[in-house]
Write a structure and sequence with these properties.
Number of domains: 1
CATH architecture: 2-Layer Sandwich
Order of helices and strands: HHHHHEHEHEEEHH
Strand content: 5-15%
Number of helices: 9
CATH topology: Beta Polymerase, domain 2
Length: about 270
């Protein structure tokens, strides 16, 4: 798969990913826009934000901001332990049950942020950053990926089944879906993943976790990009950076073609 992405045989025939997408529109339900009633309440408000506002009333740690008091720091430490020991296992368990139904090649990975990571994100989000204004009201409860679970599947056919299964089984507990196959990010059009925000109650307290649905191909390309371009854990030259970006575009193109071929066969 690495060789396939590096070769870039598909995307190299086009000037850009935009040109490829114009010639090869996505086919199948995976490319349909997210239904408004999933993300939005009847009054037009965000279901995710409504959940967070209510959750802060029950769980004070969710209101802790960038300058916590000693007592708030203690709450954050306890919260980090709760995420690791209680929320993470519960979230992983329910997604692992879905993975078992999808076959041996469906894989589940999961992680929880530690208290220091949570505070670091609060400070970053409340500070000015290049091309991103500060969000002074950002709080612990706004960190939607404090617990993250990834369900990686072998191909687009299984991804479609996985999304339908998740929507059917989790129902109203899904607070938000962002389908980057149907609506790619403007600033990262080659990034392909379907993140969902899922509510879960643990020990009587409301929590959330981010579930990412992705193919093996898109996951591999995104992990390489994350560790070289987005967060440069690995030093890269200009040519290597270009190769990583091209691999991302190739992964997006191949997923797109695979979906079109499946739709045509059906």
């Amino acid at each position: 798969m690495l060789t396939e992405l590096a070769r870039a045989a598909t995307i190299s025939r086009y000037i850009s990913l935009t040109d490829f997408l114009a010639d090869n529109p996505g086919l199948g339900t995976i490319f349909e826009p997210v239904s408004e009633d999933i993300n939005t309440a009847p009054d037009g408000s965000s279901r995710k934000k409504n959940f967070e506002a209510q959750a802060r009333q029950q769980d004070p740690v969710r209101a802790v901001g960038a300058d916590p008091t000693p007592s708030e720091l203690a709450l954050v430490d306890d919260y980090g332990v709760r995420l690791q020991r209680r929320v993470l296992p519960a979230a992983r368990r329910e997604i692992a049950e879905l993975a078992d139904l999808l076959g041996d090649r469906a894989r589940v990975s999961a992680r929880a942020k530690k208290s220091g990571d949570l505070l670091d994100k609060i400070r970053r989000m409340t500070s000015d950053r290049p091309n991103r204004p500060a969000r002074p009201d950002y709080r612990i409860g706004d960190i939607i990926d404090a617990v993250g679970v990834r369900l990686t599947v072998p191909d687009m056919a299984t991804l479609t089944v996985a999304l339908d299964m998740v929507k059917d089984r989790l129902g109203d507990r899904i607070l938000e879906i962002e389908n980057m196959y149907a609506q790619p990010k403007a600033q990262a059009p080659s990034y392909r993943v379907i993140p969902l925000i899922v509510s879960i109650e643990v020990d009587g307290l409301p929590c959330t976790y981010e579930l990412q649905l992705t193919t093996e191909r898109a996951s591999l390309a995104a992990d390489i990009e994350h560790n070289t371009l987005y967060k440069p854990y690995v030093s890269t030259s200009r040519l290597q950076k270009q190769a990583v970006q091209t691999a991302m575009e190739e992964a997006a193109a191949l997923d797109q073609l695979e979906s079109a071929e499946r739709d045509s066969d059906g």
